[in-house]
Design goal:
With about 190 residues, the protein is of the alpha/beta class. The chain has a single domain, classed as Formyl transferase, N-terminal domain (Rossmann fold, 3-Layer(aba) Sandwich), CATH 3.40.50. The chain contains 6 helices and 7 strands; from the N terminus they run βαβαβαβαβαββα. The protein has a 7-stranded mixed beta sheet, with helices on both faces. α1 runs parallel beside α6 and α5 packs across α6. It is globular, with a radius of gyration of 16 Å. It starts with a strand and ends with a helix. Bound molecules: 5-O-phosphono-beta-D-ribofuranosylamine. The site of 5-O-phosphono-beta-D-ribofuranosylamine has 14 residues, from α1, β5 and α6. Keywords: Purine biosynthesis, Transferase. Its EC number is 2.1.2.2. It catalyses: N(1)-(5-phospho-beta-D-ribosyl)glycinamide + (6R)-10-formyltetrahydrofolate = N(2)-formyl-N(1)-(5-phospho-beta-D-ribosyl)glycinamide + (6S)-5,6,7,8-tetrahydrofolate + H(+).
């Protein structure tokens, strides 16, 4: 992976976006390599998958540690792995301003809405309740403002009659798996 950008992926759960990034990274012409998969949930399903693929992993629960010590340990693990860009993929913890500043313009996230609409949680339910004709997902730079940084790429997904939050989430997730690898590749080569 000599000339590839080293990416660290932070997850909290099933990690399907992380898997999409890993699978895309295996293409010879992919400009990034996954140098570390880290999780705040030691029992995250995505972490087990990453281990099964012999990827470098790091797991640490912040419980009992406190946020500063927890983030210092994550930061150290990322730096030890030579990570240059951090990709959040279903990472359910807010990063502190200090962590964001230490990785300024080096952290990206995937969010299941067409930002700036529907920051935060329950994005699909809110899009349906609002009567929107389209939902979708966005990849953005992470700043101190929740889901607030520059949008790097988006994919639209039509909202169909009879959709509920779950059916829409499922179709948006498929769009996420295409959007994230493509946008990350553009980001690391820009
Ligand atoms: C995705 O919908 C992502 O947009 C959001 O959290 C979900 C994570 O899913 N931030 P997965 O863990 O990548 O499967």
């Amino acid at each position: 992976m000599a000339d590839k950008t080293r990416v660290g992926v932070l997850i909290s759960g099933r990690g399907s976006n992380m898997i999409a990034l890993v699978e895309a990274s295996r293409a010879a012409d992919c400009p990034y390599a996954i140098a570390l998969v880290a999780s705040d949930k030691p029992d995250a399903a995505g972490l087990a998958w990453a281990r099964s693929q012999d990827l470098a992993t790091f797991a640490l629960s912040p419980r009992g540690l406190g946020k500063p010590a927890y983030e210092a340990a994550i930061d150290a693990a990322l730096r030890e792995a030579g990570v240059e860009v951090v990709a959040l993929a279903g990472y359910m913890r807010l990063l502190s301003d200090g962590f964001v500043a230490a990785w300024r313009d080096k952290i990206v996230n995937i969010h299941p809405s067409l930002l700036p609409k529907y920051k935060g949680l329950d994005t699909h339910g809110r899009a349906i309740a609002a009567g929107d004709a389209v939902g979708g997902c966005s990849v953005h730079v992470v700043t101190e403002e929740l889901d607030g940084g520059v949008v790097l790429g988006q994919a639209e997904v039509p909202i169909l009659a009879g959709d509920d939050a779950d059916t829409l989430a499922e179709r948006v997730l498929a769009a996420e798996h295409a959007l994230y690898p493509k946008t990350l590749a553009e980001f690391v080569t820009r």
